[in-house]
Design a protein that fits this description.
The protein is of the alpha+beta class and 477 residues long. Helix content is 40%, strand content 19%. The structure holds zinc ion (ZN).
């Protein structure tokens, strides 16, 4: 008996000691979040999200910038890996895309597709604030709030209270797409209850801490939003009030220990700078009013370098068609018309329009014999001629045969002052001399928009097509 009591005392002492030591470090005090009852299967979340994502991507302009997208994807993956195990669903596929919209917002669809507005990335003061919004949205997905809310509405006969997505679940796959399509982009901003928003803030804070971010950055994002005036829907729900949410996250943050310390290595600032360099993005309201449909950005339409034809370009090409096709490039910042037998190719940050046979690869690098190329150059100079010289020097880095022939000439592009420079080069594929015409004009933000036309020296039957393309350019900055 005595031994037993002694054992018990020792045990209690151990427990007390353990608890005492562990207290400041443990996450035991953090708020416990539970899944709500849900009539839908996990697969329903996945199916529903997939259908809605297909619609979303036709109705919202995605930012066609691989660097920005892979950066956001990287932050997203770090957060997803930090979702507590009880909320991880192996069927969910989280992915992250950047929408070219100005509103400071983000939203996620059931099962994992997530859309982060360019305006949100540009507004955040650091990576933590951006990650905070993403962690909040990830939490709605992990907690299956969309289908949980739909389950509840069904129970109380409040079907009408659920916007598009909730209704779409009930309408079945065929009805879903039609219903979502008819209601436009606004429908994706599910209005969650106050309770759900608070849960997403709390779980979001916990995910932040587990991923090595300071959860206070999620709270700080509300201050940033207040300063800059955020948009509606999505992350910035009007209930609870931003100041209540700020206080609740701060309270939760005191109970959380940040796991390790993730150091922002400057990527955020670099990507932010890059995005600020693009022409201004439209607002969600403008996108919705325009009613424009966007083609899905399949790899077939947007080949990267490795998807170019493996062979080098032959230089044997069709004459430019007399029929022209309208394009928008740089997320609608530039409109132009191009002969209908040319195709669009994205090469790094620039866009080419080329005839079949006029492009290919040499030593794994894309090479063009005929076509036009558009890009935006970062420059240190506000003087157009100096800025143009910088761009030419940049081109010359990879082309030791590049020479300027003659000086600069003045012209106008879309009623703006522009400069023309003519250069000669030796084509890497054909070994033949080629002529390069470069036209530059300054954008409002100080960057330089450039247009390049390439064709073999002495081959003049592309000249009028090049002129028509250049004259059709409209810049919306
Ligand atoms: Zn929310």
């Amino acid at each position: 008996m005595i031994r037993n009591t002694l054992m018990k005392q020792r045990l209690i002492a151990w427990v007390v000691l353990f608890a005492f030591c562990a207290m400041p470090l443990s996450l035991a005090a953090q708020t416990q979040i539970k899944l709500h009852s849900n009539k839908y299967k996990v697969e329903d979340d996945v199916k529903l999200g997939r259908q809605a994502a297909a619609e979303v991507e036709q109705q919202l302009p995605l930012l066609n910038d691989n660097q920005a997208r892979s950066y956001v994807e990287g932050v997203g993956r770090r957060l997803v890996a930090a979702i507590p195990s009880q909320f991880q669903q192996p069927q969910f596929q989280y992915y992250f895309k950047v929408v070219n919209a100005r509103d400071i917002n983000a939203f996620a669809l059931p099962g994992g597709p997530m859309y982060v507005n360019r305006g949100m990335i540009e507004a955040a003061r650091n990576e933590g604030e951006m990650a905070g919004v993403m962690a909040h949205e990830i939490s709605h997905v992990a907690l299956r709030h969309g289908t949980a809310q739909a389950s509840k509405a069904q129970k109380y006969g409040l079907l009408a209270g659920i916007l598009g997505i909730g209704g779409a679940i009930l309408g079945g796959p065929a009805g879903a797409a039609a219903q979502v399509a008819s209601q436009g982009v606004g429908v994706y901003f599910l209005k969650f209850s106050r309770e759900y928003e608070t849960e997403a803030d709390i779980l979001g804070s916990q995910i932040m801490a587990r991923a090595g971010y300071d959860p206070r950055d999620l709270a700080n994002m509300f201050r940033t939003l207040e300063r800059q005036g955020g948009g509606g829907g999505g992350f910035l729900s009007d209930h609870p009030s931003p100041s209540d949410r700020y206080a609740r996250i701060e309270q939760e943050a005191q109970m959380l220990r940040v796991n390790g310390s993730y150091r922002d290595n400057g990527d955020f600032a670099r990507i932010q700078q890059r995005l600020r360099g693009y022409p201004a993005a439209p607002t969600m309201a403008e996108i919705q009013r325009s009613g424009q449909r966007y083609p899905s950005q399949t790899p077939a339409n947007y080949p990267e370098g490795s998807n170019y034809p493996q062979n080098s370009p032959t230089g044997r090409v069709e004459y430019p068609s007399n029929r022209y096709q309208g394009y928008q490039i740089f997320n609608g910042g530039v409109q132009l018309n191009v002969p209908s037998n040319w195709r669009e190719l994205n090469e790094g940050n620039s866009v080419w329009f080329v005839p079949q046979g006029g492009y290919g690869q040499v030593n794994g690098q894309p090479v063009f014999t005929h076509g036009v190329n558009f890009g935006v150059g970062q420059t240190n100079s506000r003087n157009l001629q100096q800025a143009t010289e910088e761009i030419i020097n940049n081109f010359a880095q990879g082309n030791r045969n590049l020479r300027m022939s003659g000086g600069y000439q003045r012209t106008t592009i879309d009623s703006r002052n522009a400069l023309v420079a003519t250069l000669s080069n030796v084509n890497e594929a054909t070994g033949q001399p080629e002529m390069i015409r470069l036209v530059t004009t300054q954008l409002r933000n100080g960057q330089v928009f450039y247009m390049v036309a390439v064709s073999p020296q002495g081959e003049r039957n592309f000249d009028s097509a090049f002129q028509n393309v250049f004259r059709s350019v409209r810049i919306n900055d």
